[in-house]
Amino acid sequence: MDKQWVKILADSRLEEGQWKQSNPAAPRDHGRAQILKTIGELNADLRDAIQIFNDHAKKEKKMSIFPIHGKDQEVLSGFVVVVGRLQLQVLQHQAHINVQISRMQGFQQRTELLHQLEANCDPFGGISWIMDQKSIMTKDMLVKQLLHDICHEAYLSEW
Question: What is the pTM assigned to this prediction?
C-alpha cells in the first residue's frame, strides 16, 4: 500500500476538473522517489519469486538472478536472470526500463528487445508502468511477466 499516495489524495481538492494540492511538488517528488525505488523492488520481488520457483522446479529448470550496478557500485541499475544459455536482462534508466533476452546460438549470442516500459505518474504521485506503449503494469504484474518471458523462452530452447 502506497500510504504517501493516500496522504496526497487526502490533501488534494478538485477545482474545475483538476486535482490541486497545497504542496504542488509533493506528487512529483513522491513519483520520482517511487521510480528510483522500482528496480530495487523488482529485483527483490523477482528474487523471492525465483526462490519459490526453484524450490518447486526440476534441477534443469533452476534460475539464477544477478544484480547489475551502475557507475556508482552502490546504485542498482538492473539485473540479469539466467536459465541455461538464456539471459533476461532488465535495465532501468531514469523513467524507462528495457527488457532484453539473450540466447546463445552456436557460438553467437543473439539479443532481442522484449519490452520497453515507461513510467506513468498519476496526479497523486502513484507510478504505473506502460509496457510496449499499450499495457499498464504494476510491479506485481511485471514480476509475473518477467517470469513468464524467461520460462517461455526456456521452454522453446532449453527445456
Answer: 0.89
